[in-house]
Amino acid sequence: MSALAIRDARAEDAEDIAGVHVRSWQAAYRGLIDQSVLDGLSVDERAAGWRRILAEPLPTSLGTLVAVRDNRLIGWASLGSGRDPDGLADGEVYGIYADPSAWSTGAGHALLVAAEQRITEAGHDRAYLWVLDGNERADAFYARHGWLEDGAIKIEERPQFTLREHRRVKTLPA
Predict the structure, then answer these.
(1) Largest CA distance in the chain
(2) Which among 160, 139, 153 is positioned nearest to 40, based on CA atoms?
(3) For residue 140, what pLDDT is reported?
(4) CB 26: neighbour CB atoms within 10 A?
(5) Cα–Cα distance, 83 to 89 (Å, whole number)
(6) What pLDDT score was predicted for residue 2?
(7) Where would I find the H helices in the chain?
(8) Closest by alpha carbon to 69, among 119, 118, 105?
């Protein structure tokens, strides 16, 4: 296996980021979100969204990082300052996904470490992220990296489904 590189996302990465996004949802959320919703996810629609995000990031954004191996984008992490009312002083990992073909290869680990570092460099000593209830693989991954459940839950109503998530937090090293 060749070396893994972590770098900032570029506009031309939008379609690859979207592909990872869709494939990872379809694999990780099977049985947790209605299958018809997962089957209906569109890389083209997600790519359009990612083009907007990369061109006009949120004011709270600290960027989107991508993992690349053999000139192939295999994962991404989007991060910034906290957006939740009780987390405004914290950093937040908005999303982090690896292509299912890259699971257990170190890509997620490298992205999470880089995200934590960037959040720390921005002046945050604590960060949080949200995990879909039932996503045991993600929960185990975050637990291995020192992210602890804090008891907070979030329910997000979407047009075709509801996301119930729980929060994990981590005090970041200085």
Answers:
(1) 44
(2) 160
(3) 98
(4) 16
(5) 9
(6) 85
(7) 14-28, 35-39, 43-55, 107-121, 136-144
(8) 105
